[in-house]
Design a protein that fits this description.
With 335 residues, the protein is α/β, with parallel strands linked by helices. The chain has 13 helices and 10 strands. Helix 8 (190-202) runs parallel beside helix 9 (216-226).
C-alpha cells in the first residue's frame, strides 16, 4: 500500500518553502503516495499549486488544536512528520495521536553560539536538508535542486498588470527589494535602502519594493526615493503575485527574510544581507544563484531570529554594509 504521509509546518514563508525539496523527493520516490501538508491558512498559497502535494490543510490559529488533531486522527496516516517541533506542534501531535518523527533543530548548539560564540555545530546542513531526517525510513535524499514555488497564469498576469500600470520593467531592468523584516536587528537601515534605490534608478533600473503589512512605511519611502521608476507592491498584490513579481526581476535584494527564499523558489538570483544571524542556523539561500553580504564581527550572532534592538547599541553588522557593496554584488551576480 502506498504511504499516506502527513507533514506539519505552521509557519513562516521561508520555513515552508524549505520543505519543497523534501516534498519533491517524496513524490519522486513514492509516486503513488498521498502527501498532506498542514500549515497556517495565510501561508497555504505557497503550496496550494504544488503538484507534489495531494492536499494542503490550512489551519487558522483561532481553531483549537484539539479540533485539528481529531480531524487528522481520522485520516489514516502511515507517516507523520513534525517539521516545526514547537510547543504548538507537540500539542497537535498529542491530540492527533500516532507515531511522529521530527528533525534536528540543534537548540543547544545554537544557544552556545549566540551566548558564548563557541561553534558547537557538527551538522552543517541547511535546514532544507535537515528536514529529511524526519523522513527516515522513506528512503529519500536531497536531489541537489533548489526550492519550488508554482505559479498560475493568473499570478503572472497580476504581476504583469501591476508593472504595466506603473510603467515598470518595460525598457529598463527590474530589480526587486525587500526592505522590511519582522525584527529590527534584521533590517538594513532605511537610509541605506533609500540611497541604494536612488543609485539603482540612476543606473537605469526600475525598482519594485515587496513586503508584508508591517513594511508599509519603509516600502513607501523606498518607492518615493525612486520616483517614477519605483513602486511599492505592499498591499497591492497577494503572496503568489509577489512571487510572480520576483520571477520578473533581475534579482532580489533582501535581508534574512521569507521573501529571500521566495525569490530562490522562482529561480531569481538573490543578494542577501545578513546581520544578527549566521550560516550555521541553516537559512542561507538554498542552492540558488546568490551573494550573501555580511561582516565578520565578534558579536555575531546575537540572536536566533533577530530582536527589537542591537544588544551593543551599534548595529554594525548591517550598518557597516554599504549601498556600494550591494551594487558591486549585483554587478557580479550570475544571471
Amino acid at each position: 500500500m502506498p504511504p499516506n504521509i502527513l507533514l506539519v509546518r505552521f509557519s513562516a514563508i521561508g520555513d515552508i518553502l524549505l520543505l519543497t525539496p523534501l516534498l519533491r523527493a517524496l513524490r519522486r520516490k513514492h509516486p503513488d503516495a498521498r502527501l498532506t501538508v498542514v500549515t497556517r491558512t495565510g501561508f497555504a498559497p505557497l503550496l496550494e499549486r504544488n503538484p507534489r502535494i495531494s492536499q494542503v490543510i490550512g489551519w487558522d490559529p483561532l481553531t483549537p488544536l484539539p479540533e485539528l488533531g481529531r480531524r487528522l486522527r481520522d485520516l489514516g496516516f502511515t507517516h507523520r512528520l513534525d517539521l516545526h517541533d514547537s510547543l504548538r506542534s507537540r500539542m497537535l501531535r498529542w491530540h492527533a495521536g500516532g507515531r511522529w518523527t521530527t528533525y534536528p533543530k540543534h537548540r543547544l548548539a545554537r544557544a552556545a553560539l549566540i551566548h558564548t560564540h563557541r561553534d558547537r555545530y557538527r551538522d552543517r546542513r541547511p535546514v532544507a536538508e535537515r528536514y529529511f531526517d524526519a523522513a527516515a525510513g522513506l528512503e529519500v535524499t536531497p536531489d541537489g535542486g533548489s526550492l519550488e514555488m508554482f505559479l498560475s497564469r493568473a499570478d503572472l498576469e497580476a504581476a504583469e498588470g501591476f508593472l504595466a500600470a506603473r510603467g515598470l520593467g518595460r525598457s529598463r531592468q527590474l530589480v526587486a527589494v525587500a526592505p522590511g523584516a519582522a525584527h529590527f536587528t534584521k533590517r538594513w537601515p532605511p537610509h541605506h535602502w533609500i540611497a541604494l534605490v536612488r543609485r539603482l534608478v540612476e543606473a537605469g533600473n526600475d525598482v519594485v519594493a515587496l513586503g508584508g503589512p508591517q513594511d508599509l512605511a519603509i516600502g513607501e519611502a523606498v518607492a518615493a526615493a525612486g520616483g517614477e521608476f519605483a513602486a511599492s507592491a505592499r498591499g497591492a498584490i497577494d503572496l503568489p503575485g509577489s512571487a510572480a513579481l520576483l520571477k520578473r526581476a533581475r534579482a532580489l535584494i533582501s535581508g534574512d527574510t521569507g521573501l529571500m527564499h521566495l525569490a530562490t523558489a522562482v529561480e531569481t538570483p538573490v543578494i542577501a544581507l545578513f546581520g544578527p544571524t549566521v550560516e550555521q542556523f541553516g537559512f542561507f539561500p538554498y542552492r540558488a544563484k546568490s551573494a550573501v553580504l555580511q561582516r565578520e564581527l565578534s558579536c555575531r550572532p546575537c540572536s536566533a531570529h533577530g530582536g527589537p534592538r542591537c544588544p551593543l547599541s551599534h548595529h554594525r553588522c548591517l550598518q557597516d554594509l554599504q549601498p556600494g557593496d550591494v551594487l558591486e554584488a549585483l554587478r557580479r551576480l550570475p544571471r
